[in-house]
Specification:
The chain is of the alpha/beta class. It has two domains: about 5-285, no CATH class; about 305-545, Spore Coat Polysaccharide Biosynthesis Protein SpsA, Chain A (Alpha-Beta Complex), CATH 3.90.550. The chain is built from 20 helices and eight strands. Strands 1, 2, 3, 4, 5, 6, 7 and 8 form an eight-stranded mixed β-sheet that branches. Strand 3, helix 14 (about 365-370) and strand 4 form a beta-alpha-beta unit. The longest helix is centred in the N-terminal third of the chain and has 36 residues, at about 145-180. The radius of gyration is 32 Å and the shape is elongated. About 45% of the residues are buried.
Length: about 550
């Protein structure tokens, strides 16, 4: 919206943050040296002793931003009032924390993420309304006190206003072109400008009230002049919340209006403090309310809101459809052969095909697997366990398998218990079956791994809103429909994201008890640090994937 946009596009955000915070720190030092401490304490005491006036100031300030939300909704009727208000307030809060008005994109982000508004519509309408808002406050200042306002704004201020006018024209044309193609967009009219003007007049109520506490018997026109000058100056705000810029402009406006400089500084600080307090509290609330939160989902929706996919009956599979048991493997030459030999030849009257998905092993995993009688799919290079599972699913779909099962190739899980895992699938009771070590028998598991499994499983159970006893099991079975629908959004692992994906899609989940014994050969790829760094962001992404 102004020359700072070009700065933001060329400098790293970290640099902007450091510069902005540094400027804010310098502003604090400069302002602090000019404050009459006794007068500031008196103003604060007056505010505490005037609950009616305090309530009036905060209510007027809050109403100003509600009007801006209503103006936005007139342009985007599909945007709920609550979400419009939340987006406006979240941005207000962010701008009081971040320098260089870096909080502005939060408004667009909130509307897109929480209300499903298209990013073009949200962006074009936001820029148009924000530019119109700034031009409206300039117009009010010019109407209330033309000579004073023109002098106070200065050449730099008017240059910024000219830039905003150009942005307003460009944004309006962009919004107009979108409105011609999208009926959900309504072009802003005089009502929107009336909302904007009213919002600034309501903000002037807070400025007027805080002036009374500072000992300034301000006129209504003076309060409007101070409001317009201080806000216009914040077009080029550097520090978080525009601290320093706001105070300097407000004091200058009070002085031009004929008031004492010391009292003017107290009035400016009191007004800015009250605005900041409101912005931080309301902005924090707006991040979480109304649902969904700006931070995204942290749990699956209630199962009652999820539509289950059409289910296959056991008769839907051809009589000769096999059960595919695939084993993702990476450098498992010492264990994979025995795992293959332990797999049954058939279960529930269906042939068992064993496939080893060799994920770029550097040893003789592929040769040992072939010698043991398995088919081998070689991925060429190491992609990760999630990628290997995706490849196994695809192989099962291409073979028209009646059930698709995977089992770790490290000897920890019992291939001979395949029938128990497959039974709910072939009988049509479930689409996704997990072998639960904690419901079965654990011959040996290292204490720290047992603890980690229990903690992660309970977390997954909470997130999924259903009882899960083993969230990290390496032994799972799937119906063809579930395997075809399954999406594993990262290559590192599959465990949690696969469960969340299929539960979110309404597939039926079941667990069966299995036996388990910790590996005696090779080395597990799971290391706590790398595991959490990869899995936690993937879970968040899965929960917030449309």
């Amino acid at each position: 919206m102004n020359f700072l946009a070009s700065v933001r596009s060329r400098l790293p955000v970290r640099t902007l943050l450091l510069v902005g915070v540094g400027i804010g720190f310098v502003a604090v030092i400069i302002v602090a040296g000019s404050i009459d401490g006794a007068a500031l304490r008196t103003a604060a005491s007056n505010a505490r002793q005037d609950p009616a006036g305090l309530s009036l100031a905060l209510a007027a300030f809050g109403a100003a931003f509600l009007l801006r939300a209503l103006a936005w909704r007139r342009v985007l009727p599909g945007l709920p009032v609550g979400q419009a208000s939340a987006a406006v307030h979240a941005t207000l809060g962010a701008n009081h924390i971040l320098p260089f008005r870096l909080g502005e994109p939060v408004r667009v982000l909130s509307a897109v993420r929480r209300a499903g508004i298209g990013i073009e519509a949200a962006t074009a309408s936001t820029i148009t309304l924000r530019a119109a808002d700034m031009l409206t406050v300039v117009t009010l200042g010019a109407i209330v006190a033309p000579a004073a306002f023109f002098d106070l704004l200065g050449w730099f201020g008017w240059a910024c206003v000219a830039a905003i006018a150009l942005v307003a024209v460009a944004a309006y044309r962009w919004l107009s072109s979108l409105a011609k193609k999208r009926p959900e967009i309504v072009m802003p009219g005089l009502a929107v400008l009336a909302f904007s003007a009213s919002a600034w007049l309501l903000e002037a109520v807070l400025v007027w009230q805080t002036a009374q506490w500072a000992g300034i018997d301000a006129s209504w026109s003076a309060a409007i002049l101070v409001t317009t000058v201080a806000v216009a100056a914040q077009i080029a705000a550097f520090a978080p919340g525009g601290f320093g810029t706001y105070e300097a402009a407000a004091v200058a406006a009070w002085i031009v209006a004929g008031y004492d400089p010391s009292a003017a500084l107290i009035a400016a600080l009191t007004a800015h403090a009250l605005k900041t307090a409101y912005s931080l509290v309301a902005g924090t609330v707006a991040v979480f309310l109304p649902a969904p939160t700006l931070l995204g989902r942290f749990r699956l929706p209630n199962s009652s809101t999820v539509q289950a996919p059409a289910q296959n009956s056991p008769a839907d599979q051809l009589d000769d459809s096999p059960v595919l048991l695939f084993m993702p493997a990476f450098n498992e030459q010492d264990a994979v052969g025995e795992c293959i030999k332990r797999a049954p030849a058939q279960v529930h009257g269906r042939r068992v095909d064993v496939l080893v998905v060799d994920d770029g092993s550097h040893d003789d995993t592929a040769r040992v697997a072939r010698d043991a009688g398995a088919q081998v799919l070689e991925l060429g290079q190491n992609h990760g366990l999630g990628a290997a599972v995706r490849a196994g699913f695809q192989a099962g779909i291409e073979r028209n398998a009646a059930a698709i099962v995977f089992c770790d190739a490290d000897g920890e899980y019992p291939p001979e218990e395949l029938a128990n895992l497959v039974e709910p699938i072939v009988e049509g009771r479930a689409d996704y079956v997990a072998g639960s070590r904690f419901s079965g028998r654990i011959d040996h598991m290292q204490p720290h791994r047992r603890f980690g499994n229990i903690v992660l499983t309970r977390a997954l159970s909470f997130i999924a809103r259903r009882k899960i006893t083993d969230g990290q099991s390496g032994y799972r079975a799937f119906s063809p429909k579930a395997a075809r629908s399954a999406e594993i959004i990262h290559d590192f692992n599959y465990a949690q994201v696969l469960t969340l994906d299929l539960l979110a899609k309404g597939f039926r989940y079941e667990e069966v008890p299995i036996s388990y014994h910790f590996r005696t050969t090779g080395e597990s790829f799971v290391k706590l640090g790398s595991y959490l760094r990869n899995v936690v962001p993937a879970i968040y992404k899965e929960l917030n994937t449309a």
